[in-house]
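To the wet lab folks,

You asked to see what we're planning to order before we commit. Fair enough. Below is the target structure as tokens, and below that is the sequence we designed to fit it. If anything looks off to you, flag it before the synthesis order goes out.
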């Protein structure tokens, strides 16, 4: 992709063609956050949902003091559940601990599974141990992707006391659940984790067994340090 100048980016953001506006947003990746955010804000209410989605995501990877309150407002009040989910995800990228309560509320109160999924993932990104209870609740979800997110996030927050709960998924029919479990156990150093990882290292799915092997290696190095 051709790199655009700041002037060209600003011009494309004013284009009537949504593809031009998306190209402009993509070109902001190498622009300093303080310069990029005012340009991103111009398309936060774009008529194209794809452009809006890209803009919301961009706020998560171009952090300034303005980004947090904008994303919280979108998470809590935007009528489009896709944008609320994007905002939840972007808050995870910001890694701003102030988002904890808003993400917990989104998980418990939003009726759309995609928003709840994004909230669970971002709670893991915040690495705040207070998320343990909400993530344990997420394990009970009927949505497999939310279970996957919860398992990963419990690993991210190093919730050792949750090992017994997540080990219930060791024989899940969903290989992605088993893979997420293998990855999470690599952050939870205990004899139970090592035993489970040795079992998962023999999994019939190569991605599961590879993840388990990597986690075993990680735990082994941790013990040697």
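Sequence we intend to order:
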């Amino acid at each position: 992709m051709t790199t655009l100048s700041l002037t060209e980016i600003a011009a494309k953001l004013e284009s009537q063609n949504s593809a031009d506006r998306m190209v402009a947003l993509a070109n902001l990746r190498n622009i300093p956050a303080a310069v990029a955010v005012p340009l991103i804000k111009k398309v936060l209410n774009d008529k194209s949902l794809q452009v809006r989605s890209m803009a919301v995501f961009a706020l998560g990877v171009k952090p300034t003091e303005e980004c947090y309150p904008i994303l919280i407002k979108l998470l809590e009040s935007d009528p489009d559940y896709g944008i609320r989910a994007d905002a939840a995800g972007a808050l995870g990228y910001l890694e701003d601990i102030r988002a904890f309560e808003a993400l917990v509320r989104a998980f418990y109160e939003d009726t759309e599974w995609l928003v709840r999924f994004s909230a669970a993932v971002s709670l893991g990104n915040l690495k705040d141990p207070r998320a343990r209870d909400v993530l344990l609740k997420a394990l009970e979800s009927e949505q497999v992707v939310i279970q996957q997110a919860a398992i990963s996030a419990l690993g991210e927050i190093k919730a050792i006391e949750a090992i017994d709960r997540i080990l219930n998924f060791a024989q899940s029919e969903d290989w992605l659940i088993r893979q997420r479990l293998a990855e999470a156990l690599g952050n939870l150093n205990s004899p139970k984790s090592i035993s489970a990882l040795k079992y998962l290292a023999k999994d019939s799915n190569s991605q599961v067994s590879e993840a388990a092997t990597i986690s075993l290696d990680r735990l082994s190095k941790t013990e040697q340090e």
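Structural context that might help your review: DSSP finds 14 helices and no strands in the chain. The radius of gyration is 20 Å.

Thanks,
Computational group
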